[in-house]
């Protein structure tokens, strides 16, 4: 759970079966929330819930719905399904598709290997979203504080589809160049890197006894 505004009635369903039903009602003082803040402009409380809520998924379930049936709104940090045979680490992890105000989360289709695709085809995160959520705040901080910002240890694990990784890298590099930020890849050789990453969907080039991901190298050079 991430944040709740005023109150929200959360339902998790598999088909017609309700797996979890819970009301979240932020208020003053202590509660199951991590912190609760009064918003005088709306006369409500908004709270951050640093908690994990679980539901048992029936075997054979093909569709799971997570929805706010009543109330204002809430946001989720992530959804984890485990065990999920075939997925890396035997666990499927779903992140919010969009964190912009008023944007409805869309449906996702997941295959037996844990690969996730948006049903509508709309990108879960695009270059503009990455800029607004992860770059602009740091650029503002650097300007205000008079300091530099360096992006350290970035990259994507080898289980992420190669085409997705390269597209994400291009967007990140363009944004960081625009913001005047330096970066360092984690790592050069290994599951995040451009040498010996053991990705199943890459045609490697032999280079000094190593397996080189030439396409990733070209993207990094352009950035």
Q: Helix and strand succession? A: EEEEEEEEEHEHEEEH
For the residues shown, what is the average pLDDT?
90
How many domains comprise the coordinates?
2
The total count of strands amounts to 13
Strand content: 25-35%
Number of helices: 3
Uncertain runs are none
State the end-to-end distance: 35 Å
Biggest sheet features:
5 strands, antiparallel
Helix content: 10-25%
Strand-pairing-aware structural class: alpha+beta
Query: What global shape is seen?
Result: flat
Q: Whole-number radius of gyration? A: 21 Å
Describe this structure in words.
The protein has 223 residues and is an alpha+beta fold. It has two domains: 3-118, no CATH class; 127-222, no CATH class. It has three helices and 13 strands; from the N terminus they run E-E-E-E-E-E-E-E-E-H-E-H-E-E-E-H. Strand 8 and strand 9 (116-118) form a beta hairpin. Helix 1 (127-145) packs parallel to helix 2 (162-179) and helix 2 (162-179) packs parallel to helix 3 (214-222). The radius of gyration is 21 Å and the shape is flat. The model has no long low-confidence stretch (mean pLDDT 90).
């Amino acid at each position: 759970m991430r944040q709740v505004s005023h109150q929200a009635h959360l339902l998790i369903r598999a088909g017609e079966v309700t797996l979890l039903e819970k009301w979240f009602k932020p208020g003053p003082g202590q509660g199951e929330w991590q912190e609760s803040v009064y918003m005088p402009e709306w006369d409500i409380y908004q709270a951050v819930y640093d908690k994990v809520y679980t539901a048992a998924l029936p075997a054979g379930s093909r569709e799971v719905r997570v929805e706010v049936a009543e109330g204002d709104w809430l946001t989720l940090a992530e959804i984890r399904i485990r065990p999920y045979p075939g997925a890396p680490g035997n666990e499927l992890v779903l992140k919010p598709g969009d964190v912009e105000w008023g944007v409805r989360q869309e449906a996702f289709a997941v295959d037996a290997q844990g690969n996730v695709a948006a049903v509508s085809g709309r990108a879960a995160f695009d270059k503009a979203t990455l800029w607004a959520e992860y770059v602009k705040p740091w650029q503002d901080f650097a300007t205000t504080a008079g300091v530099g910002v360096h992006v350290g240890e970035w990259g994507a694990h080898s289980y992420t589809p190669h085409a997705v990784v390269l597209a994400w890298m291009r967007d990140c590099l363009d944004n960081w160049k625009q913001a005047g930020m330096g970066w360092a890849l984690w790592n050069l050789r290994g599951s995040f890197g451009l040498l010996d990453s053991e990705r199943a969907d890459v045609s490697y080039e032999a280079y000094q006894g190593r397996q080189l991901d030439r396409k990733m190298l070209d993207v990094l050079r352009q950035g």
